[in-house]
Amino acid sequence: MTRVGVITFPGTLDDGDAARAVRRAGGEPVALWHADSDLQGVAAVIVPGGFSYGDYLRAGAIASMAPIMQSVIDAARVGMPVLGICNGFQILCEAGLLPGALLRNAGLHFVCRDQRLRIETTATPWTRDFSVGDEIVVPVKNIDGRYHADAATLQRLEAENRVVFRYAGGNPNGSLNDIAGVCSEDGRVVGLMPHPEHAIDELTGPSTDGLGLFRSLLGVLAAA
Amino acid sequence: MPKPEILDVQGQAVHRALVRLGISGISDVRQGKHFELEVDDTVDDETLHKVAGELLANPVIEDWVVTRV
């Protein structure tokens, strides 16, 4: 069974749901601890949401320097798939694995709602099973979710088709170009603010759309 | 400090509060962070700039200055 790591930092909240999503998609979740540097032979890593280190300094800033993150950075540089969700996206930006930064929401409110997203590229291991233009509904819940990158970076992301998810039916936080998620140059590292791991079961989520990300990954890894 | 091109929504909220208080003549507020480090003589300026640029500030969104007092 494909082993997928899920990191827990002090203040992580969504590691349980991320592990459950991996299991539901047919993989074996492996708990990874922030203070370790051993990735335990996992084939991919999820950096889940929450408030690592209480968002002290900046959301994701301190977690990005944890020992486990150095191992994740090294593995990502040689192509290991990585998914950062919410605080995980902020951590990947702070770690330099993804471009840009997440700023305080334009409305200054914590936004918690079911959010429509448009899939903009399937050229990542996390979105391969979707079609470009598909819309999914997953929860969004954050206060620092406003994506920002300088004009040149933004232009490059659009030109290189590296916007992976875009808000549909209204931008919840003022993100530039309605960006909800982006990927690295090689497409293997993806980060997004909304929570696909909370949308895998009709009983507890608005849809089961989120499962598509985890199934995509496992399909890609099985074919490799 | 947030870079000039960054929309500083917290600074804007502070500005609106000042207007509500009836204080006139303030046209803009921008909100940043201030850190005070106790350092001994072995810490040179180069190290302090590295600390500021690599940890205390995020150069994607923030400008920073180091001042010795």
TrEMBL record, chain A:
What cellular component GO annotations does this protein have? cytoplasm
- How is the subunit organization of this protein annotated in UniProt? Part of the FGAM synthase complex composed of 1 PurL, 1 PurQ and 2 PurS subunits.
Record the organism.
Pseudonocardia thermophila
Name the gene: purQ
Q: In which pathway does it act?
A: Purine metabolism; IMP biosynthesis via de novo pathway; 5-amino-1-(5-phospho-D-ribosyl)imidazole from N(2)-formyl-N(1)-(5-phospho-D-ribosyl)glycinamide: step 1/2
Q: Which residues form the active site?
A: 86, 195, 197
Q: Please report the name of this protein according to its UniProt entry.
A: Phosphoribosylformylglycinamidine synthase subunit PurQ
E.C. number: 6.3.5.3, 3.5.1.2
Q: Where in the cell is it found?
A: Cytoplasm
Task: Identify a single GO molecular function assigned to this protein.
Answer: ATP binding
Enumerate the Gene Ontology biological process terms: 'de novo' IMP biosynthetic process
**Function, in words:** Part of the phosphoribosylformylglycinamidine synthase complex involved in the purines biosynthetic pathway. Catalyzes the ATP-dependent conversion of formylglycinamide ribonucleotide (FGAR) and glutamine to yield formylglycinamidine ribonucleotide (FGAM) and glutamate. The FGAM synthase complex is composed of three subunits. PurQ produces an ammonia molecule by converting glutamine to glutamate. PurL transfers the ammonia molecule to FGAR to form FGAM in an ATP-dependent manner.
Lineage of the source organism?
Answer: Bacteria, Bacillati, Actinomycetota, Actinomycetes, Pseudonocardiales
Any idea which UniProt keywords this protein has? ATP-binding, Cytoplasm, Glutamine amidotransferase, Hydrolase, Ligase, Nucleotide-binding, Purine biosynthesis
What superkingdom heads the lineage? Bacteria
One Pfam family assigned to this protein is GATase_5
The chemistry this enzyme catalyses reads:
L-glutamine + H2O = L-glutamate + NH4(+); N(2)-formyl-N(1)-(5-phospho-beta-D-ribosyl)glycinamide + L-glutamine + ATP + H2O = 2-formamido-N(1)-(5-O-phospho-beta-D-ribosyl)acetamidine + L-glutamate + ADP + phosphate + H(+)
Automatic annotation (TrEMBL), chain B:
Q: Which GO terms describe its biological process?
A: purine ribonucleotide biosynthetic process
- For whether the record's keyword set contains NAD, the answer is no
Which UniProt keywords are given for this protein, alphabetically ordered? ATP-binding, Cytoplasm, Ligase, Nucleotide-binding, Purine biosynthesis
Could you name the domain of life of the organism this protein comes from?
A: Bacteria
Asked if the keyword ATP-binding belongs to this entry, the reply reads yes
Q: Which Gene3D superfamilies match?
A: Phosphoribosylformylglycinamidine synthase subunit PurS (3.30.1280.10)
Q: Which GO terms describe its molecular function?
A: ATP binding; phosphoribosylformylglycinamidine synthase activity
Recorded protein name is Phosphoribosylformylglycinamidine synthase subunit PurS
Organism, scientific name: Pseudonocardia thermophila
